[in-house]
């Protein structure tokens, strides 16, 4: 027979007379489903469904391949190729819903799973039947991955039909995201300013190591920010000390998850507050690591509703004994036109005689009595107190007069922070109504 090519028009101009035989279209559908982005640390499952719409499936074989979506093909760094734990994304296994033990053992014998490639056998399917499995993939780092799944099958069990195989290809891009971004911040005791000598020495250096005062109750605020597009559940937030850290430093949780879990919406933050009380001097002290237990909040199936542990190491801190501690005592609030007293106490914790200079700057919000400049000698292991009486001239949140205490021996000045030197002034005597029902009183206590 002589005929022109039907699909390849280039052969028509070559003068050849050929017959072009096309492969029949596969009448088997291969469906990949993805339940949103994959999160680092969780066991992410991708359901795969094979539906026979016109062909019977014999000797079926499913090939899975994971490739970096940005190119390169590798899912790990070339320098880390020898390390088995360095894979950015791993194909851990394939789970099926088959309850037949014999067929399950047969599938396990044919299955070959590597970190980015897998092969699994598909049972024989008649026309109209379907079969499904779940791919179990784990992200160790945030990375965009292309998932390629290929189904190869024969139309029959005879030798001639087995030689002719049809293939169906599907691909799916899955974004790997970091679930939570953890940050922390140290706060010194409220209205207590210790003199830390390491802060004086490191003014001109690049050493930004945080310094804590010994035997002072410091605050550690841990913030977990949801970086994903799905809501997350925080089940617990703790700090686990390393080695003998629990004996050298006391860490207690003040505010956090008391019972159940806390739901963190996308782009929102959850904060836990811890009290850190160092008991020994150390230049390189390791507080431990932050441990977060989290899971997805959205209903994405039972397989993905699992609690995942996320850990992050806290940086080393320097613990030292402060020679001078400046504390300020002030009422919780003030009333317009009614005088009140503030006390500035300077404690000398050394065995040396300390000379200090004290200065106070005028403020437009207050009229006060007392010395603007003062100098004194503080005996070892003793305390010196300076008091001022102030009369507020305006209502609202007012800034107290600026107080500066300078140590002559160390040539260092201490000034209370802006938040510590702020007081709220009421226009008249406030009246707090505490005679409420039990539920309201519980809210006030909390």
Q: Tell me, what is the CATH class of the largest domain?
A: Mainly Beta
Helix content: under 10%
Could you tell me the number of beta strands? 33
**Number of DSSP helical runs:** 5
Principal-axes shape call: elongated
Q: What order do the strands of the largest sheet run in, or round the barrel if closed?
A: 2-10-9-4-7-6
Unreliable parts? 77-85, 300-304
**What is the count of distinct domains?**
3
Short description:
By secondary structure, the protein is mostly beta strands.
Plain-language structure description:
Helix content is 7%, strand content 48%. It is elongated and about 110 Å long. By secondary structure, it is mostly beta strands. The strands form 8 sheets. Strands 2-10-9-4-7-6 form a 6-stranded mixed β-sheet. Strands 12-23-25-29-27 form a 5-stranded antiparallel β-sheet, with no helix packed on it. A 4-stranded antiparallel β-sheet has the order 1-3-8-5, with no helix packed on it. It is built from 5 helices and 33 strands. It folds into 3 domains: 169 residues, Immunoglobulin-like (Sandwich), CATH 2.60.40.680; 141 residues, Immunoglobulin-like; 103 residues, Immunoglobulins (Immunoglobulin-like).
Highlighted features:
single chain, mainly beta, Immunoglobulin-like, 5-stranded antiparallel β-sheet, 33 strands
How would the blueprint of this fold be written?
Elements: E1 28-32, E2 38-39, E3 43-52, E4 58-68, E5 89-96, H1 101-110, E6 112-113, E7 117-122, E8 130-139, E9 144-154, H2 159-163, E10 165-177, E11 180-187, E12 192-194, H3 197-201, E13 211-213, E14 218-226, E15 232-240, H4 245-248, E16 249-255, E17 262-264, E18 269-278, E19 282-285, E20 289-296, E21 308-313, E22 317-320, E23 324-329, E24 333-335, E25 340-348, E26 354-360, E27 366-369, E28 373-378, E29 382-392, E30 396-399, E31 403-407, E32 412-414, E33 422-426, H5 438-445
Parallel strand pairs: 2-10, 13-22, 24-33
Antiparallel strand pairs: 1-3, 3-8, 4-7, 4-9, 5-8, 6-7, 9-10, 11-14, 12-23, 14-18, 15-17, 15-20, 16-18, 19-22, 20-21, 23-25, 25-29, 26-28, 26-31, 27-29, 30-33, 31-32
């Amino acid at each position: 027979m002589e005929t022109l090519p039907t699909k390849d028009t280039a052969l028509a101009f070559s003068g050849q007379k050929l017959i072009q035989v096309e492969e029949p279209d596969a009448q088997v559908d291969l469906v990949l489903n993805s339940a949103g982005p994959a999160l680092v640390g969780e066991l992410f499952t991708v359901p795969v469904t094979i539906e026979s719409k016109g062909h019977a499936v014999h000797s079926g074989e499913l090939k899975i391949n994971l490739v970096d979506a940005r190119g390169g093909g590798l899912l790990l760094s070339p320098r880390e190729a020898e390390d088995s734990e360095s894979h950015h994304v791993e194909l851990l296994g394939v789970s099926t819903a088959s309850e037949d033990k014999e067929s399950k053992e047969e599938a396990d014998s044919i299955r070959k799973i590597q970190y980015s490639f897998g092969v699994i056998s598909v049972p024989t399917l008649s026309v109209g039947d379907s079969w499904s499995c779940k791919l179990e993939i784990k992200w160790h780092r945030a990375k965009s991955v292309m998932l390629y799944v290929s189904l190869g099958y024969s139309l029959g069990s005879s030798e001639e039909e087995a030689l002719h195989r049809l293939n169906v290809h599907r691909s799916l891009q899955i974004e790997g995201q970091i679930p939570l971004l953890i940050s922390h911040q140290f706060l010194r005791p409220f209205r207590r300013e210790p003199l830390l000598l390491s802060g004086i020495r490191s003014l001109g250096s690049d050493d930004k190591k945080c310094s804590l005062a010994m035997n002072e109750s410091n605050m550690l605020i841990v913030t977990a920010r949801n970086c994903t597009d799905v809501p997350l559940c925080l089940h617990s937030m703790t700090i686990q000390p390393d080695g003998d850290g629990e004996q050298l430093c006391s860490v207690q949780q003040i505010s956090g998850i008391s019972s159940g879990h806390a739901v963190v919406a996308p782009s929102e933050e959850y904060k836990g507050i811890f009290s850190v009380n160092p008991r020994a001097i150390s230049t390189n002290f390791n507080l431990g690591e932050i441990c977060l237990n989290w899971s997805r909040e959205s209903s994405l199936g039972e397989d993905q509703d699992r609690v995942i542990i996320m850990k992050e190491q806290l940086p080393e801190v320097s613990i030292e004994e402060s020679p001078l501690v400046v504390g300020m005592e002030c009422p919780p609030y003030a009333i317009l036109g009614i005088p009140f007293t503030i006390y500035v106490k300077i404690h000398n914790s050394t065995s040396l005689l300390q000379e200090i200079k004290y200065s106070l700057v005028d403020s437009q919000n207050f009229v006060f009595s007392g010395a603007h400049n003062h100098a004194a000698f503080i005996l070892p292991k003793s305390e010196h107190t300076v008091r001022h009486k102030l009369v507020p001239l305006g209502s609202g949140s007012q800034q107290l007069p600026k107080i500066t205490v300078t140590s002559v021996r160390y040539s260092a000045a201490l000034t209370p922070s802006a938040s510590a030197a702020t007081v709220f002034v009421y226009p008249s005597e406030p009246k707090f109504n505490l005679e409420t029902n039990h539920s309201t009183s519980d809210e006030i206590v909390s």
